[in-house]
Every structure is written in structure tokens, then in C-alpha cells.
Amino acid sequence: MTEPGSALSLQDSPFARKLSAFVRLSPGDLAVMSDLYRLRRRFAVGVDMIHQGQTGQGAYVLASGWASSYKILRSGSRQIVGVQIPGDFLGLRSVLFRTSDHNVEPVTPVQASVIRQQDLLTAFTETPRLATAVLWAASRDEAMTVERLVDLGRRTATERMAHFLLELGARLRLVGLGDRAGYACPLSQYVLADALGLSAVHVNRVLRELREDGLLTFQKGRVIFDDYEALVDLASFDRAYLDHEGPLLT
User: Fold this and answer.
1) Which of 247, 36, 10 is nearest to 132 (CA)?
2) Could you tell me the pTM of the whole model?
3) Regarding the domain delimited by 2-140, which CATH topology (the fold level of the hierarchy) does it fall under?
């Protein structure tokens, strides 16, 4: 069901906070973004928002809640290819490629703004700065995909977990949902397993090792960085690829 957006100021939304990391948004930019952001849909956990092979699908921007992008293999196993948090686009490629190449499922109850293809292309024409900011966001997502490939191919299970949770923390801080001490995280060990190419048993063991080593605690839906700098060193985490050093376009 589609409904008007909430009264939350767009300027304070995770979407605006994220794009503001690259471009200083003008009142005109915000007005166009407000039009894009105005229609909302609610999705329950377990109900796919986007289906692989679906055509004519618009995109979404997560206003609240978490989601995961995934593919199902012929064997029935699942590989999560991305975790989305408030402020992230969902299905942007399917707008440009016309056919979705993956599924998107809510991890928690979700509110998402509906972005129709023509509305998005019109917004790009009217506000090139906004188009540039969205290109930055898409490029940043690609950089995270590169890191995920390194995770799966070369990092140990412990390094993989540490890097993934540090990256999530940096992303959440950008949109005002976390800090250097930690963040609320609704991901189950099964979701972490499918995202990191591990078994749930292995995930449990790695998290226990990180806790016992005094580096990180993940319990009761919260990630706590017990020794942030040591965890960064363990994961060789260089946040430069996330490009969070302030607006490049003013």
C-alpha cells in the first residue's frame, strides 16, 4: 500500500544525510528530493520487495528498516550480496537495466519511498547536482562490492566478520544511526552467514572469539566495539573507499 511520506524533515532523513556527504544540497535540490521521497510503502519481514527477473520495477529508498539483496542458487542456497540500511537505494540497477538481477527482502519491517523510473530521470534533468550525488552513492556501493569480493576470496573468517561489521558501523554513522562505540544491528547469525559465505556455526564461533579477545561484542541486537582501533588493525579496515570525508561539491 502506497501512502504519503512522514512529516520527518527531508533534510534530517538518512537519504539526505547520505547524499550530503558528497554534495551540499541546495533548497532546490531538497525540493526535488522531497518529490521523489513523498510516496511510501510498508513491507513486512519475509515479503520480497523486488524479485529477480522482474521487469518494469521502480526503485526504492529505505526510509526506515533494514533489507538484504540476495540471489538463490539452483541448489537452494542463498548468497546475500548486500545489506541495505536507511538512506540506501534499492533496485536502482533495475530502473536502468529494466530487469532486476536479484531479490530484495526486508530484514526488519520497512518503510520505503517509491521512486518511479520517469520521476528519477526527470529529477536528474532538473538537478544535475542530485544526479551526481546519486552517481556517487552508486559508485560507493560498487566499492563496497569490491571489498566484499576481497572478503570472500582472501580474508579469513575473523577478518571478514570484523571488516563487515566495521563497514556497517561507518555507514550507519554517516546517516546518524550509530557512533564509534557501536550500533543497533538486527542481523541474525543466519543472515551474517549468508552474507559472508560462512555457516551459522562458524559465525557463532567467530563472534565468540572476537568477544573473548576483547575486540567486539555482538549480543541482544547490538554491536559494541570494545577495542575499535585493534579491530580496525585486525581487519586492515581503510574507510577511504567509503568516501565520508565531507562534501566534495559545494
Assistant:
1) 247
2) 0.89
3) Jelly Rolls (2.60.120)
